[in-house]
Design brief:
mainly alpha; 6 helices
């Protein structure tokens, strides 16, 4: 028997990507706040920044899978880049909660910086994620259009 791989749909990839980035955010917050409930309060207070990052990453994961199913390659660099920006933004916004570790790491000044510019860091990250979604959507549409015009029998 051939070794078959499962073709999970782009929706499954999107939901899984959103859940994974949300879980990463929660765990970073829980570690920093040293509380399991603290991240839930943070989400309620900053949901308008956090939710677009999670949803943007989820959409990118779904688009990545859709592109991959059409071409069997492509899109990974954009997902990695903007996903990395999303993750870095979440880490950056959570960094002020890791006060107890920062002096050990020699990053005490970073606490003040990230605390003072947290909203700007979030907005910049959302812009990068939105740019990634737009680019990946454009790339998917281009690949979809090209596959419609491909002659039969040509791979």
């Amino acid at each position: 028997m051939e070794n078959e791989t499962k073709n999970y749909s782009p929706i499954v990839w999107g939901v899984a990507g959103g859940l994974l980035i949300g879980l990463l955010f929660y765990l970073l917050q829980a570690l920093g706040m040293q509380s399991w409930q603290g991240p839930l309060y943070q989400f309620r207070y900053r949901w308008y920044f956090i939710l677009p990052l999670i949803l943007g990453f989820a959409v990118q994961a779904g688009l990545f899978r859709a592109i991959h199913l059409k071409t069997r390659h492509g899109g990974g660099g954009v997902l990695t880049a903007s996903g990395g920006v999303s993750t870095t933004a979440m880490i950056g916004c959570c960094l002020h909660n890791l006060v107890f570790l920062l002096p050990i790491l020699g990053l005490s000044g970073a606490v003040v910086f990230f605390g003072a510019y947290q909203s700007y860091i979030f907005l910049t990250s959302i812009a990068f994620v939105l740019g990634g979604v737009i680019y990946m959507g454009w790339k998917y549409q281009k690949i979809k259009r090209l596959s419609c015009h491909r002659p039969t029998g040509v791979k």
